[in-house]
Amino acid sequence: MSEFILVLSNIWVYLSLVMEVGILAVLIYYGLYFLRGTRAANVLAGIIIALLLLTLATDFLKLEVITELLNGLWMIFPLAIIVIFQPEIRRAFAHLGSSRPFARRMKQEETINEVVKSVEYLSVNKRGALIVFQRQIGMRALISSGIKINAEVSHQLIQTIFHPNTPLHDGAIAIDDNEIIAAHIIFPLTQSVSLSDSLGTRHRAAIGVTEETDAVAVVVSEETGGISIAYRGNLVRNITTEKLSQFLRSLLIPSQNDTIRNIFEDMSDDDEMSGFSGGTER
């Protein structure tokens, strides 16, 4: 029995060592992750390098007084990090708090509201637009043709991007994780031969990107101001902003994913599908 307890004790020693190393590795990784690309990262690297070089030099030269001082600095180094990098640490905790499911859902709701508000304005003023929401399947290769934006979604920004005669108004914008990641994107057009000749470039690009990915695309016609939405290669046309908001919530908010198919079928019954015929829309 005593041997068994001794074995368990030895196993626990090794497990606790692995756990400690793992915890430290995670803390260091996320600390560097939140400092990446900031001035604080350069400052931190400079402090650590300077202290290491001084410590090695004083040990080599046997400078006992300076060595003792440096040992003291290493003791207060964690506290100094907290004081020096207080803004970055606060930002990290704020990011951690905002990553909770409730906060994420609130952010998604806000993004959808901003997009719907911008689409309503663009529709009334007959300004063509193509807005694509990235979901699980990444679109890095597809959006490489665009101009990076990396800005928080707002209806003012979307309306400005699609203002006529501005450099970015042609093409599409891509939204991912509540940010407009790029604009002036040229998506590949669908190659389907069963579509109506009335569909213009924007609508065909919306169908094309949803054929290749699980993205959701919203189109505003420049000719009629009509609002359309594309998903999984299907296009539902001439929907209201209320239905647009309902459909986007069903797709982009995880807790409502179970209603996606029903909502899309309801839209298909009430609204015009991709086989619409008439004048060509852009």
Short description:
With 282 residues, this protein is α+β, with helices and mostly antiparallel strands. The chain contains ten helices and eight strands.
Explained architecture:
- With 282 residues, the chain is of the alpha+beta class.
- It folds into two domains: 2-98, no CATH class; 101-273, YojJ-like (1, CATH 3.40.1700.10.
- It has helices at residues 2-35, 39-61, 64-84, 86-98, 101-124, 140-143, 155-161, 201-212, 241-252, 260-270; strands spanning 129-133, 147-152, 172-176, 179-185, 216-220, 227-231, 234-237, 272-273.
Task: Just name the CATH architecture of the largest domain.
Answer: 3-Layer(aba) Sandwich
Outline the low-pLDDT stretches. Answer: 267-272, 274-280
> Do you know the CATH topology of the largest domain?
YojJ-like (1
CATH superfamily of the largest domain: DNA integrity scanning protein, DisA, N-terminal domain
Radius of gyration: 28 Å
Provide the succession of SSEs.
HHHHHEHEHEEHEEEHHE
Number of strands: 8
Percent range of helical residues: 55-70%
Q: What's the structural domain tally?
A: 2
Distance between the termini: 81 Å
- Describe the sheet with the most strands: 8 strands, mixed
Topology (SSEs and partners):
Blueprint: H1 2-35, H2 39-61, H3 64-84, H4 86-98, H5 101-124, E1 129-133, H6 140-143, E2 147-152, H7 155-161, E3 172-176, E4 179-185, H8 201-212, E5 216-220, E6 227-231, E7 234-237, H9 241-252, H10 260-270, E8 272-273
Parallel strand pairs: 1-3
Antiparallel strand pairs: 1-5, 2-4, 3-4, 5-6, 6-7, 7-8
